[in-house]
Specification:
With 254 residues, this protein is α/β, with parallel strands linked by helices. The protein contains nine helices and eleven strands.
Length: 254
């Protein structure tokens, strides 16, 4: 497949342009030629030298990640930025990135994957960020104790088995909001939407008091652990296109 065709297909499916004004990440093809033939695609959560090297060793022509190397532009190509770009160029490996578009996609996104894994149904868009959303909100089907949801989160790839729970909501949880990664800022929206709980990756100091006063339970399941779902979904999609794939698992424990 031609690289440009590959990029255009992903941009279209993920609605990349809709997030251009709200995402610091330079989504789409971050590094690579305008065209070229690709046969194997690597997938990873982070674009780091470790994942780049492993994808190159597997013979990938392009690496698709959630976190890329350009956040608000690159002023100086030095240090770690230089090392990562050099690893890509030296291995003739293109880099495609999807940050917020891959968080909020209703079918392929990280939040959708988390919701599916913990058994949420009747889902709707959640996590407003300007004109777009980056999360999802759904029901558990039957009231669940917080321990049940925590145990499901502890089973995620990259989880250390230590999901932190700020248990300030009801004893039985029925509605859950999900914003993966660093999503504690959407606690107020979760409370306003009638959610009993918010699932995210990592928290901030203030989320403790906000959750306590709002009466919402917060699950902090790990940034990496909540953001493997999107790239995994893209891997399955790309395999349907007839391309070979490889997945690079490199959990951070964070």
């Amino acid at each position: 497949m031609d690289l440009r065709t590959f990029v255009d297909r992903l941009d279209d499916r993920l609605d990349t342009d809709a997030y251009a004004d709200v995402d610091a990440s330079a989504n789409g093809l971050q590094i690579g030629p305008d065209s070229g033939s690709i046969e194997r695609v690597g997938f990873a959560v982070d674009a780091a030298t470790a994942t780049i090297d492993e994808a190159a060793d597997a013979g990938a022509d392009v690496l698709v990640t959630h976190h890329g190397v350009s956040w608000g532009g690159i002023d100086h190509v030095t240090g770690m930025t230089y090392d990562r770009i050099a690893a890509l160029v030296e291995n003739d490996l293109a880099l495609y990135v999807s940050h917020l578009p891959l968080d909020g996609h209703a079918e392929l996104g990280n939040a959708a994957g988390v919701a599916e894994a913990i058994g949420l149904a009747d889902r709707e868009p959640f996590g407003a960020l300007g004109p777009v959303t980056i999360g999802t909100l759904g029901g558990t089907g039957e009231p669940l104790p917080p321990e049940t949801i925590r145990d499901r989160l502890d089973g995620f790839e990259g989880s250390t088995g230590g999901t932190r729970v700020l248990e300030f909501g009801p004893d039985r949880i029925e509605r859950v909001a999900v914003v993966t990664g660093s999503g504690a800022d959407w606690l107020d929206e979760a409370a306003a939407a009638g959610a009993d709980a918010l699932v995210t990756g990592e928290g901030k100091q203030q989320v403790y008091h906000d959750a306590r006063e709002a009466g919402v339970t917060v699950f902090l399941a790990g940034h990496y652990a909540t953001e493997t779902f999107g790239v995994r979904s893209l891997q399955s999609l790309v395999e349907e296109w007839g391309l070979e794939t490889t997945y690079v698992s490199h959990p951070t424990g964070l």
